[in-house]
């Protein structure tokens, strides 16, 4: 069966720093894949490349067997690969309802209508249903700036799911959320994921969260995938234990982390903007 | 077609304004309001872009194009029907905007502001060097006709342009009011708020900005055309950057909260200027400067925000992740 | 051949002037991320201050060219520092950290205020300070008559450029400023007093603007509105070179100066058009300007 998402020999370097090295990933329909790795291991770079935000240095990206490398993020979204963000990317001064209704209209057509009202009864009803599904209905008429962090992350993910994507990439869905809220948040997200039968890849630091939801783990270290397989096997892997989950030589891992901070810095300066 | 409150108010205000203008108001006031409303149309173009997060310091470009098209249509093309001349300005502005937009939509923030300013200054430079267009003095608009009647100046002309301007302004405001609530209008605001998200919703911020830029140019050109008909004269200062600065000023004075705001702000601006220039000729700009600072600090959403202090609903206090009951609201 | 040489000389002179006008603008933007619309007003204030001082010095009809140069520069320093301090302490420091576009609007308000303040202080009649210009006489270069004052202007522009460059690249203070330019937050975390750097930078920028005006005063009539005309040219230089870059401003000034001189000699109807035309062309090819950096938003 053709994988939904496949990358072949994907490489990315920022000057002398390698952020992705020969990434070969195949994700099949219905898989729930967790991505783990220290800060700067290349997880977000991977998502950014796959969704068209960062151009890889070399390699191939296929979606349903068709090459998508070089397409703009909007085209990749339209082809069915949606994503959420480490920091929720919303429209802060608009209301939560507006955020969702705009996303609904965007999913309907890439060419917004000039004169027909945006807030149709159908769209508002649909938006309310989604808000309910994600348990953020109470914020319907609040501006995003007044919504707490955890709920913003949920709205961010809800907006990514609005276009009925074939696959969803979640970049640290629980980052910035308090420990108590993490479980509830992931339960809500995963319930929606199962309800819509989505294929999901998500980046997560909390190994308990990962173990609980995923059928497969990709472990990143220094731009490479050092382990790929079922959770138990990957988390038991000696290199993963040493380099990712940090059960030995903690200092070494932090040193590496610092190196990759500079890689991210280089990324921020060298990449081209989305145009 | 069902009309909402704003649309009904627009129709009502237009009727009242036309009646009052025709029956009671003195000529100088009618003229002042006509020019203010025409300039407010240019400001509407600035506001359209402000809603998308872009500040055009060069909207005078399209004001000038609209004005010169009216003048040149009469002078060189032998056109004299007022509505045709206005349409000519709009077409010229749209064509120009379609070309410039290709470059400008790559820019944001101060780069957009400065580049739009530069384009306007290019036109200024060209006009100043064009002897056949009267160089820095500009030239007068020839007599024109409206629906077959010749308009040649005097009170009749003042009243005719006034009615024409009120009708045009009301129509544009009506359309803009709908536009701001459409998918397109709201997506423009979304671009201002977060362009990355708009892109990842599968839309092209650049295309949307482009369409908005061209539409704003058309609206501004109408303002330029009406100003030319009202004053009977055009000159290169229409494209000078301080003229555009004035439009930005009026846009900020009014704010982006309502389609009425630019009209209100333009009339206030024109009235205050009339008196300030008479009594404090060397302090007029200083008053503007302090007013602008005051707006930035105290009324960042413009004068209109004084009327709409209670716009956004209060935030519920309980966190919905804790409150398991927080579901769909009827 | 002769006209080619004339373009080269005129272009270099004009480029020197453009660089002097733009240097302060680009320094302020580079460090503070403020596109100072009121920069032209500091230019005008410098011109008025210089013209007043020169008028006073030559009041009895005599004086030396050398002293008058010192007076020009002294007037510029005093005007730039005094008005710069007033503006920074009285207004701008309360506005730091605001959105870049909003800062454009705030400095636009400042421009409006300063324009009228100058009318109130200096009146609306023209000021003249031609003495330093005429005192220096003219030279003949390959058959072309060139004002010596303009040649001195080239020297001053080069000196200002080198001084700025040396200051930023070779001194400790320059290093700190470059840290602020590179990453304000990191600089702050490393203990740099960013606000003090802002004050310092703003004063340097305004003084440079005033200096440009003071040095221009002898070759023009100083009237209301000269700053408004100048600011747009300065923007063009800075945008072409890449906002915030000194070497960019130098290259941008040369490119625009030579283009304009060429237009004046070969196609005078394009004189005003050419500067913005070249600017649009550069930006169409290289949106961030010749020496600009692009930044991608982190998500």
From TrEMBL, chain A:
Region: Disordered, residue numbers: 246-275
InterPro entries xrefs: AAA+_ATPase, ABC_AA/LPS_Transport, ABC_transporter-like_ATP-bd, P-loop_NTPase
The keyword Nucleotide-binding is assigned to this record: yes
Classification via Pfam families: ABC_tran (PF00005)
PROSITE patterns (UniProt xref): ABC_TRANSPORTER_2
Alphabetical keyword list: ATP-binding, Nucleotide-binding, Transport
Domain ABC transporter span(s) in chain numbering: 5-247
Domain of life: Bacteria
GO molecular function: ATP binding
Compositionally biased residues, Basic and acidic residues: 246-264
Organism: Xanthobacter agilis
Descriptive protein name: Branched-chain amino acid transport system ATP-binding protein
From TrEMBL, chain B:
Membrane protein topology class: Multi-pass membrane protein
Pfam families: BPD_transp_2
Location relative to the cell: Cell membrane
Keyword Transmembrane among record annotations: yes
Keywords, comma-separated and alphabetical: Cell membrane, Membrane, Transmembrane, Transmembrane helix
Signal sequence interval, chain numbering: none
Predominant cellular place of this UniProt entry's protein: membrane
TM annotation in the entry: 7-24, 60-77, 83-103, 110-127, 157-176, 210-229, 249-272, 279-299
CDD domains in alphabetical order: TM_PBP1_LivM_like
Highest taxon, organism lineage: Bacteria
PANTHER family, per database record: ABC TRANSPORTER ATP-BINDING PROTEIN, HIGH-AFFINITY BRANCHED-CHAIN AMINO ACID TRANSPORT SYSTEM PERMEASE
The protein, known as: Branched-chain amino acid transport system permease protein
Species annotation: Xanthobacter agilis
Automatic annotation (TrEMBL), chain C:
Transmembrane feature ranges: 12-35, 42-59, 65-87, 108-129, 149-168, 197-216, 273-296
Compartments it resides in: Cell membrane
CDD domains for this protein: TM_PBP1_LivH_like (cd06582)
Top-level lineage group: Bacteria
Membrane-topology descriptor: Multi-pass membrane protein
Keyword Lyase in annotation: no
Record-linked Pfam families: BPD_transp_2
Keywords per UniProt: Amino-acid transport, Cell membrane, Membrane, Transmembrane, Transmembrane helix, Transport
InterPro entries for the chain: ABC_transp_permease, BCAA_transport_permease
Family to which this protein belongs: Belongs to the binding-protein-dependent transport system permease family. LivHM subfamily.
Protein name: Branched-chain amino acid transport system permease protein
Organism whose genome encodes this protein: Xanthobacter agilis
């Amino acid at each position: 069966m053709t994988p939904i998402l496949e990358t072949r020999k994907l490489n990315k370097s920022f000057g002398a720093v390698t952020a992705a090295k020969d990434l070969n990933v195949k994700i099949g329909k219905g898989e729930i894949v967790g991505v783990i790795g220290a800060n700067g291991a290349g997880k977000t770079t991977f998502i950014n490349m796959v969704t068209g935000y960062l151009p890889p240095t070399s390699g191939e990206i296929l979606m349903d067997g068709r090459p998508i490398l070089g397409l703009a993020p909007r085209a990749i979204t339209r082809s069915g690969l949606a994503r959420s963000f480490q920091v929720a990317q919303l429209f802060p001064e608009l209301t939560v309802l507006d955020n969702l209704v705009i996303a609904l209209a965007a999913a309907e057509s890439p060419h917004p209508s000039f004169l027909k009202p945006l807030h149709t009864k159908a769209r508002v009803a649909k938006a309310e249903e989604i808000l309910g599904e994600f348990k953020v209905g109470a914020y319907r008429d609040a501006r995003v700036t007044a919504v707490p962090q955890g709920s913003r992350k949920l709205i961010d993910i809800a907006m990514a799911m609005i276009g009925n994507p074939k696959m969803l990439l979640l970049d640290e869905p629980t980052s910035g959320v308090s420990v108590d809220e993490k479980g509830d948040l992931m339960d809500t997200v995963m319930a929606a994921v199962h309800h819509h039968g989505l294929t999901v890849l998500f980046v997560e630091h909390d190994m308990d969260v990962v173990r609980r939801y995923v059928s497969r783990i990709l472990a990143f270290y220094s731009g490479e995938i050092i382990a790929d397989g079922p959770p138990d096997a990957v988390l038991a892997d000696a290199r993963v234990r040493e380099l990712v989950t940090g059960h030995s030589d903690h200092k070494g891992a932090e040193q590496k982390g610092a190196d990759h901070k500079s890689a991210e810095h280089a990324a921020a300066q060298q990449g081209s903007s989305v145009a | 077609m069902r009309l909402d409150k704003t649309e009904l108010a627009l129709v009502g205000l237009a009727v009242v304004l036309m009646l009052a203008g025709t029956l009671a108001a003195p000529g100088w006031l009618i003229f002042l309001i006509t020019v203010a409303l025409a300039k407010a149309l240019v400001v509407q173009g600035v506001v359209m872009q402000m809603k998308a997060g872009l500040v055009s310091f060069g909207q005078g470009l399209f004001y000038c194009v609209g004005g010169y098209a009216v003048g040149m249509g009469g002078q060189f093309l032998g056109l004299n029907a007022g509505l045709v001349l206005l349409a000519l300005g709009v077409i010229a502005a749209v064509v120009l905007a379609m070309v410039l937009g290709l470059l400008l939509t790559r820019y944001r923030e101060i780069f957009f502001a400065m580049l739009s300013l530069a384009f306007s200054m290019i036109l200024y430079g060209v006009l100043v060097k064009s002897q056949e267009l009267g160089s820095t003095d500009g030239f007068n608009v020839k007599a024109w006709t409206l629906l077959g009647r010749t308009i040649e100046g005097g009170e009749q002309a003042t009243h005719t342009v006034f009615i024409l301007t009120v009708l045009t302004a009301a129509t544009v405001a009506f359309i803009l009011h709908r536009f701001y609530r459409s998918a397109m209008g709201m997506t423009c605001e979304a671009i201002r708020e977060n362009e990355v998200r708009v892109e990842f919703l599968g839309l092209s911020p650049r295309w949307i900005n482009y369409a908005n830029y061209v539409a704003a140019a058309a609206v501004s050109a109408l303002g330029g055309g009406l100003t030319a008909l009202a004053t009977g004269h055009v000159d290169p200062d229409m494209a000078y950057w301080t003229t555009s600065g004035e439009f930005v000023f009026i846009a900020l004075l009014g704010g982006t909260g309502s389609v009425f705001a630019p009209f209100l702000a333009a009339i206030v601006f024109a009235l205050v200027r009339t008196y300030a220039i008479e009594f404090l000729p060397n302090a007029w700009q200083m008053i503007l400067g302090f007013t602008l600072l005051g707006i930035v600090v105290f009324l960042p959403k413009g004068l209109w925000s004084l009327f709409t202090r209670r716009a956004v609903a209060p935030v519920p206090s309980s966190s919905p992740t804790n409150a398991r009951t927080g579901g769909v609201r009827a | 051949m002769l006209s080619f040489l004339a373009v080269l000389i005129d272009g270099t002179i004009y480029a020197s002037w453009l660089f002097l006008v733009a240097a302060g603008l680009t320094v302020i933007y580079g460090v503070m991320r403020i596109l100072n619309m009121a920069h032209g007003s500091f230019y005008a204030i410098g011109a008025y201050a210089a013209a007043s001082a020169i008028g006073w010095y030559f009041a009895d009809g005599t004086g030396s060219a050398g002293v008058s140069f010192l007076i020009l520069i002294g007037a510029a320093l005093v005007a730039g520092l005094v008005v710069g301090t007033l503006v920074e302490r009285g207004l701008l420091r309360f506005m730091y950290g605001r959105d870049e576009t909003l800062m454009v609007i705030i400095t636009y308000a400042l421009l409006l205020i300063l324009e009228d303040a100058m009318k109130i202080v200096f009146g609306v009649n023209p000021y003249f300070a031609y003495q330093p210009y005429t005192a220096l006489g003219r030279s003949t270069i390959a058959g072309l008559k060139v004002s010596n004052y303009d040649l001195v202007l080239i020297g001053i522009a080069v000196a200002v450029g080198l001084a700025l460059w040396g200051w930023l690249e070779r001194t400790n203070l320059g290093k700190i400023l470059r840290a602020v330019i590179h990453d304000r937050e990191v600089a702050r975390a490393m203990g740099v007093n960013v606000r003090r750097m802002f004050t310092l930078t703003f004063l340097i920028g305004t003084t440079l603007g005033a200096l440009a005006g003071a040095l221009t005063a002898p070759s023009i009539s100083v009237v209301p509105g000269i700053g408004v005309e100048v600011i747009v040219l300065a923007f063009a230089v800075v945008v072409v070179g890449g906002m915030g870059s000194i070497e960019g401003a130098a290259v941008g000034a040369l490119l625009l100066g030579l283009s304009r001189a060429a237009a004046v000699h070969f196609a005078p109807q394009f004189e005003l058009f050419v500067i913005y035309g070249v600017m649009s062309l550069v930006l169409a090819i290289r949106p961030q300007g010749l020496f600009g950096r692009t930044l991608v938003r982190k998500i």
